[in-house]
Amino acid sequence: MTEEERQDFLAEARVAVMAIEQPDGPPLAVPIWYLYQPGSDIRIVIGPHSTKATLLAQAGRFSLCVQTETVPYRYVSVSGPVVETRQCDIESDARVLAHRYLGSQGGDRFIEAGDESSSICVTMRPEKWYSADYGKVQ
Q1: 75 has which bridge partners?
Q2: Which of 16, 19, 90, 121 could form a disulfide with 63 if both were Cys (CB 3.0 to 4.6 A apart)?
Q3: pLDDT value at residue 126
Q4: 3-class SS at 89?
Q5: pLDDT value at 115 more than 80
Q6: How far is residue 20 from each of residues 49, 69, 77, 118, measured CA to CA in Å?
Q7: What 3-state DSSP class applies to 41?
Q8: d(CA 21, CA 121)
Q9: What pLDDT, on a 0 to 100 scale, did the predictor assign at position 136?
Q10: Residue 30 — φ and ψ, nearest 5°?
Q11: Which parts of 1-116 are beta strand (E)?
Q12: Cβ distance 35 to 120 under 8 Å?
């Protein structure tokens, strides 16, 4: 993929698999929602006492991988350092994320039903990119 293609692909609403190093075993790999616009950093919203938060504080970096589920298969994998961890803002972080994945009404229901007020927003600066578009393979 070209740089523009991979950034556009990552900007689409896809569930990512997040991978974080663990000191005592293989990386933790879990599905996660994320926010990304081409040329920007990646944001995720997680619980402050979750395993993800604990491992991110130790590792200081993570990877995301997104893919298509149908032929022709495509994927983008990106990794980089955590550049910011802060208290989640319900409107600009959690609600925007919920709307991205569930639509306006579903996202609003998700926010109203949960307790995102204690969540944290983690920002990663993409450094390494890997991608493939198997539809281009001849």
Answers
A1: 67, 132
A2: 19
A3: 97
A4: coil
A5: no
A6: 15, 23, 13, 22
A7: coil
A8: 19
A9: 86
A10: -140, 150
A11: 16-22, 25-32, 42-46, 61-67, 74-87
A12: no
Q: What angle do CA 79, 81, 85 make, to 5 degrees?
A: 125
Domains and CATH numbers, the chain: 3-136 (2.30.110.10)
As given in the structure block, the two tokens for residue 41 are 């950093």
Question: How far is residue 132 CA from its own chain's centroid?
Answer: 18
Contact call for residues 126 and 77 (beta carbons, < 8 A): no
Look-up: residue for tokens 């991110």? 56
Q: What is the pLDDT averaged over residues 52-80?
A: 97
| Residues contacting residue 40 through CB under 8 Å, at least 6 positions apart | none
Tell me the pLDDT of the chain averaged across its residues: 95
Do the beta carbons of residue 64 and residue 22 sit within 8 Å? no
In DSSP terms, 91 is beta-bridged to none
Q: What is the pLDDT of residue 138?
A: 59
Return phi, psi of residue 49, to 5°.
Answer: -115, 15
Q: What is the mean pLDDT of residues 101-123?
A: 91
pLDDT, one tens digit per residue, over 44-56 is 999 999 999 999 9
